[in-house]
Amino acid sequence: MDVAVDIRKGSPTFGQHVAVELTEDNHRQFFVPKGFAHGFAVLSETAVFQYKCDNFYAPQAEGGISIQDEDLGIDWGIPTDKAIISAKDLHHPLLKDYDSPFDFNVNLYAE
User: Fold this and answer.
1) Is 104 within 8 Å of 36 (Cβ atoms)?
2) In whole angstroms, what is the distance from residue 6 CA to residue 33 CA?
3) Which one of 8, 34, 41, 100 is CB 3.0 to 4.6 Å from 104, fit for a cystine?
């Protein structure tokens, strides 16, 4: 299950999400543009997961919002008490407490 949440300040869809199930049978891909938070849940016993970024990895610029934010209304397909969440992801703030660096009125793809 791949999920993208709009975190662009001033966006009419701020805080809304899109969820897409990616399987070996449907062969779907999921593009997550700049200004959207990305998360995923593995719903099978095993999975091969790969993603591409539009720039070099910069850990100092990494941030996130809590996948446990109930205000987002995301159905991860896994009961919360069964989910295995990385230590890093356990410490992200709720969206209402997150200071997003993205602005809806700024072209995030301008050079």
Assistant:
1) no
2) 9
3) 8
Specify whether the backbone of 24 is left (phi greater than 0), alpha (psi in -120 to 50) or beta.
alpha
Q: CA torsion, points 59, 30, 39, 104, in degrees to nearest 10?
A: 70
For residue 57, which phi and psi values (nearest 5 degrees)? -65, 130
Whole-model pTM: value is: 0.91
Amino acid at position 104, single letter: F
Strand pairing of 17-20 and 2-6? antiparallel
- Residue-by-residue pLDDT tens, the chain, 111 positions: 999 999 999 999 999 999 999 998 999 999 999 999 999 999 998 888 888 888 888 888 888 999 889 999 999 999 878 888 988 888 999 999 999 999 999 998 887
- Find, among 74, 64, 61, 59, the residue nearest to 95 by Cα: 64
Residue 41 has φ and ψ, to the nearest 5°, of -135, 135
DSSP one-letter code for 43: -
Which residue type, as a one-letter code, is found at position 66? S
